[in-house]
Model the fold of this input.
Amino acid sequence: MMIEVLKSKIHCARVTEANLNYMGSITVDEDLLDAANMIAGEKVHIVDNNNGERFETYIIKGERGSGKICLNGAAARKVQPGDIVIIMSYAMMDFEDAKSFKPSLVFPDPQTNSLV
Done:
């Protein structure tokens, strides 16, 4: 049996921008992507801790070391710069393998989005 489990999480990052005029997605600092074992184009689930919004989009690689977390396109209407978000991705795996799988968890500095 295959089940879907948490693969990666960037926990409590601060939204730095919301760009309505870009074609969808979330731009994430490449340092955070590497630390969380995420890649450009990967589907992610976003949870906004400030307003309760929950939605899905895909990743665009942001400039390394920039701390950038930018919601683009329609998703820009669901957040405000300064909001705290959780960015999660999931993977399908065998039930038995899932029992011992350890997701990549990243806890950036909530002010700068840098790795601590």
